[in-house]
């Protein structure tokens, strides 16, 4: 389905009935990464999976930023009158979930994030270098966004009042000390480092993430 929110046309799919949960993919991906997760979640929950702007089947806009992406989600929630949804965000999707959680403290019931960072320094050196290399050859604005953003502070994270469940792979692209700092600064958070997994191995086209999410929802 398509919906126009925040002056952008977004493609989304919805499944199941029950309490609402919104799935948000990472950079340069689409909702298709959740193909193993959605069938399981939709047995008990109302699932909304979105292609973010400049991704998948959604509109390719001139501008992109984490602020715009997060505001797209807020507008989506208001347009469909989704009451107190859970957001599960992977990578960039986790960044957007954090932005919403501290800017709109009453909008969501919970966020669960995997492999999110609060500034570009959170990326390990190898992955940051690979992003720079990719941007050099492609000039992809989505990659440029990762190199310049986000810029979330400890003061921002301290504003979060809803439960936050933080996940990261043992071999994640995000530095473990960075992930632990996010956990430290969010007083309502829990942290789980997933053993023997990398940034997306337990999420992308994987049924492993469902078993983890069930602990929290």
> How would a textbook summarize the main sheet?
8 strands, mixed
Poorly predicted parts = none
In N-to-C order, the SSE pattern is: EEEHEHEHEHHHEHEH
Number of domains: 1
- How do the strands of the widest beta sheet line up side by side? 1-2-4-3-5-6-7-8
How much of the sequence lies in strands comes to 15-25%
End-to-end Cα distance, whole Å, is 26 Å
Evaluate the radius of gyration: 16 Å
DSSP summary: helix tally: 8
CATH architectural designation: 3-Layer(aba) Sandwich
- CATH fold title: Rossmann fold
**Outline:** globular
User: What is the arithmetic mean of pLDDT?
Assistant: 97
Structural classification? alpha/beta
| Count of individual beta strands | 8
CATH superfamily: Alpha/Beta hydrolase fold, catalytic domain
Helix content: 25-40%
- Top-tier CATH class: Alpha Beta
Can you tag this structure with a few keywords?
Rossmann fold; single chain; 217 residues
Describe the protein's architecture and organization.
It is a single chain. The protein is α/β, with parallel strands linked by helices and 217 residues long. It has an eight-stranded mixed sheet with strand order 1-2-4-3-5-6-7-8. The model has no long low-confidence stretch (mean pLDDT 97). The protein contains eight helices and eight strands, in the order βββαβαβαβαααβαβα. The protein has one domain: Alpha/Beta hydrolase fold, catalytic domain (Rossmann fold, 3-Layer(aba) Sandwich). It is globular and about 40 Å long. It has helices at residues 37-41, 66-79, 92-103, 125-138, 141-148, 154-157, 176-185, 208-213; strands at 2-5, 8-15, 20-24, 46-51, 86-90, 110-114, 164-171, 189-198. Strand 3, helix 1 (37-41) and strand 4 (46-51) form a beta-alpha-beta unit. Helix content is 34%, strand content 24%.
């Amino acid at each position: 389905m398509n919906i126009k929110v925040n002056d952008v046309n977004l493609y989304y799919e919805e499944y199941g009935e029950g309490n609402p949960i919104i799935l948000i993919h990472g950079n340069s991906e689409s909702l298709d990464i959740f193909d193993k997760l959605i069938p399981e979640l939709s047995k008990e929950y109302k699932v909304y999976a979105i292609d973010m702007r400049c991704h998948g089947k959604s509109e390719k806009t001139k501008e992109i930023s984490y602020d715009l992406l997060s505001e797209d989600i807020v507008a989506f929630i208001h347009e469909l009158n989704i009451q107190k949804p859970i957001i599960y965000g992977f990578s960039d999707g986790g960044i957007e979930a954090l932005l919403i959680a501290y800017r709109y403290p009453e909008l969501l019931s919970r966020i669960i994030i995997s492999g999110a960072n609060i500034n570009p320094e959170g990326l390990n050196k190898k992955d940051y270098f690979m992003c720079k290399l990719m941007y050099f050859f492609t000039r992809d604005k989505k990659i440029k966004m990762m190199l310049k953003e986000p810029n979330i502070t400890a003061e921002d994270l301290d504003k979060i009042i809803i439960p936050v469940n933080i996940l990261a792979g043992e071999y994640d692209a995000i530095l473990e000390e960075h992930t632990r700092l996010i956990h430290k600064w969010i007083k309502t958070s829990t942290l789980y480092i997933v053993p023997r997994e990398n940034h997306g191995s337990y999420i992308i086209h994987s049924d492993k993430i469902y078993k983890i999410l069930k602990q929290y929802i």
